[in-house]
Amino acid sequence: MLSLMSNRQTDLQKRQVILYTRPGCHLCEEAQQEMRAAGCANEYTLQEINIESDRELLRRYQYDIPVITIDGVEAFRHRLTSQAFRDRLHSGAGACPPS
Asked: What is the distance between the alpha carbons of residues 69 and 56, in angstroms, rounded to a whole number?
């Protein structure tokens, strides 16, 4: 029982990362590679959202993907490096200036 509670607590402490993407997006694939290369996948939960699944998301992000948010705050747009992703994940910082 204690182990189960520890896992739930750990999940609650993980950062929530959303990757807004669409099929065939090479920049999105590069972003995913950089996120994996950061070596901190156990510190966040990742949700990938296809912008083509929602008219408003498609309108908003059509020419700007990938967009990555951390805990609901936009953190990256278009490109990122593994080091920048790891630093941002660990900093807990708010929004960065648009690229």
From this structure: 17
